[in-house]
Structures are given as structure tokens and as C-alpha cells.
Amino acid sequence: MSAWGRPRQTECARTGCSFPCCKSRRDETSRAPSKYCKKHTCAHFYITEEVPRCEKSKDPSDSVCPYHARCPIENCRKARIQIQVENPADELRFKRQKYCGDHTCLHEGCTNMRSTLGQGRMDFRPYCNDHVCHADGCTEKNTRPCGGWYCKSHKCTNPGCSNQAVDKCQYCEEHNQCETASCTNPKRPGKEFCITHLECETDGCHKLKESHSSHCSNHTCGERGCKTSSGNFKYCQEHRCGYQDCGEHRAVEGKFCPRHSCQRCGCQKQRCYRGMYCLTHTCTDHDCGDARDYGDFCENHYRGEYGRRIEERLDEDLRKMRIDIETKDLALEGQRQRLKELDEQVRRLQSARHPHGNGLPN
Fold it and tell me: How far apart are CA 120 and CA 197, in angstroms?
């Protein structure tokens, strides 16, 4: 025994683990033997890139010593992430990831340090350089391996392109050209055309076109698929009612809307101002708007007109009869006058034949 009550160091003591109360042998599997057994040797002792090797002991359930259990990021005082591992002896065993939870990439299964690309030296993004979007200041995940180094917001949306999109645009510089033929102007952010080819094509209007239309919302014809300007109406000239300033949709057949079309079945003409029918099918009586069902008149006016016509016909027949009678009377009077004249001539002839006679024989 030594003066301090400790046993003198023997050959067995020099080959034993230096951890207090541990009777295991030192680990001599590496080029340089450890002071501790396998259970008490820090994992950083075996990392040959680290010089000098770690000479601190560790807890048997952990993989590193207390010094190396701390996150290696400067000024970080948190412990590296600890993960339980399977152990055949049913003893609790853990291993450490490279960094603490604040500095480990959030991508599932990744243990790399979070990225500081384009930021301050101590400003970390949620993902590592392999998984974070490479656009300055972006904290979103990139689209690799199917996409590229940029997230969906910063990646060119042209199919098959993985380049970074131009600022406030959906396309990269290569694909950020107006899709109008022969136009090289840059696209408007979020659109497929430049501002020139996005403006409403109605004269004097500078509003943006509606999708799949050549005009803005104020000038797009309400007829589906129509690309003609509607002007100041809801529909273009081809699809709106032709009645004065009516802007309603015209009927499937005809040039007028149902309100301004003749209500006669099969008729496509414009109704007249005084009724529901066109001039051809409206009663011809003054200011009557009913349908012409009896010749030129509606039923009511036809009845009145029929009676009036009968009266007129009777009057006309009576007038003709009177004229006929007068004509015949005049003819009879002429005949009487002629007879008188002939009788007078006869008398004169008889007088000339018998100048001394006393007239015609008895």
C-alpha cells in the first residue's frame, strides 16, 4: 500500500481503464492506445483528423465526452442531438449527431449543419446547403433532386428548367421573354406576356387582359370563346341585341334579344314600338299592338272592321243602285224626248202631203 492508501501501480494497473472503479482493459485497437476502455473512450479519440486526440472520458451510455457533447457552433451552449441506438445487452446506449437541434438541417434524415448562404456568419437557415433554396435570404427547401437548387417560388417555371427565376418573375433570364412571336420584351411578373401584349386591345384601354381573352374584364364579350371587344356593352356587336342601345344577348336565331324579338313563332324580326310583334305581324289599326290574326287586323279590330266594311259595301251598293236608276231614268227621259221629236216630224210630213186637208184621215 502507498502512503495515500492506494495500491502500488502494477503491470495490470497500467493496462487497465483509467476511469475510476472500472476494471476493464484499455482500448488498444487504434494506433495510439486509449487511457480508457471502449466504454469510456470518447468517440473523438478515434477521429484521426483531430489532433490532438480527445483524452477525456465519457459516460458508458453516451458516445462522446461532455466537452464534445456540446454543439460545435461558436457560442452555442446546447448539446448535440442524442439518438438512442440498439444494444444487444439491453443497456441504454446513445450516439450523437453533429449539431444541436437549432443547427441541424430540418430535412428528414439529414444531419448536416444548417446553411448560412447569403446571410450573416451566425444567421442560419432551416436547411443545410444541400437542401435549402439558394436564393438570397430564402428559408424554403429546394426542389432537388427532381428540380434544382431553388424552391418553387424562386425556380423558373418553364418545364425542365432548374435555373433561378428573375426577381418577381416566374421565369429565369433565358425564359423570361414574351411568348408573343418576335417579341423579346420581358414578361410581366406572373404572366406569360410582356406589358405591351397584356394590355386590352380595345382602343384607348390600358387595363390588363383577362386570361384567354384579348381584352380586359370591361371589354371582354360575355359570349364564351369570343375574342371581339364588347365596347361599352356586355356583349360584342355580333352577340348583342341589335335594338338601339340594348346590350343583352341576342337570341340563338335572329339579331334581337327575346325582349325585342317578334313574339310570333318562327319570326326573327324586331318587334315594333307599340306591341310584342313586328310590323308584319302587328294589327294595322292605329296604335293597336295586338297580333295580326285576321288578315290585316287583330280579332277585335277585325270584327269592327268587318261590320264597317259591310256597311260601306251596302252604302256603296245603294249608291250604285241610285246611280243606275238615275242613269235609266235619264235614258227613259231621252227616249221620251226622242219619241216626241219623231212624232212631231211625222205630223209635219203629213201636213206637207195634204196641204188643203184637214189633217190625218179619221
Answer: 42
